[in-house]
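User: Good morning. I'm curious how uracil would be positioned relative to this chain. Could you predict the structure with it bound?
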Amino acid sequence: MSSMRLHKILSHAGISSRRKAEELIREGRVTVNGKVVTEAATNADISCDHIKINGKLITRLEPKVYILLNKPRGYITSLKDKEGRPTVIDLLKKVKLRVYPVGRLDYDTAGILLFTNDGDMAHALAHPRYMVPKTYLAKVRGIPNEVKIKRLNKGLLRIDGQQIPPAKTQIDRVSGENSWLRITIYEGQNRQIKRMCEAAGHPVSKLKRVRYASLTLSGLAPGAYRYLNSKEIEMLRTYMKRKK
Ligand code: URA
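Assistant: Good morning! Here's the predicted structure, ligand included:
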C-alpha cells in the first residue's frame, strides 16, 4: 500500500465523507504514529503507519461499493432530517457499509440516485467539468413552443441574474393542458430543472430522473436498489478521465 492523503484514508476506511474527515482532522481527533495531525493533506500509509481516530486504530480500508437507488418521492436526500422526514438512507438499511449520496434529488423528485463510499468518484461525478449527462422527465404546465425549447437548450434563460446552463429538451408527450419534457443536463445546480422550466414559463409539477450517464431504472421498483456491476463502474470511471 502506498501513501495517501490522510482525509482520503479516513473516507476510504468508511469513517466519514472526505469533507467530514477534513473537519475531524482539523479538530485534532486524528493521530499518526502517536502525534496529533491537523493538516488533512498530510500523507500516511495505512500498511505501516498507526492512524487513530478518537483513539481507535484504523486497520483496513473498506471495499468500494456503488449503488443505484430508485428514489421514491417523499424522501429527503440527506443522512438525517431535522423535521423527521424519511431519508434516502432509510431505504438502504441492509447496506452495512457507510455510503453517501452522489449529488441530490429534491424531496419531491423521484428516480436515479447513486450512492458510494468512493469519495473520488462521488466528487468527480458531481463536478460539472466532467459533463455527466443526467436525463429527467418533467411534467410541466402548458406546452412549450419552439422558441422556449431553443432558449432552454441554448442556456439563454436567466434566474436572478444567473445564467442557466444549456440543456437538451424535447417534448415527450402532451397530456391535456400539461406536457412531459425529456430534459438532459450536464450540471447539477440546486433545483436546476425546476428553475429552468419556471424561467421558461412552464412550472414543473412532477419530476423524475430516468437516466444517469448510461444507467437507467430498468427492473427497479420505487424504493428498490441494486449494486452496480464492474462494467457499469468502469463506464462511470471514463467520465473521470474526460474534461470539458
Ligand atoms: N432539478 C430539480 O429541480 N430538482 C431535482 O431534484 C433535480 C434536478
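The domain at 133-212 is CATH 3.30.70.1560 (Alpha-Beta Plaits). The radius of gyration is 21 Å.
Let me know if you'd like a different ligand tried.
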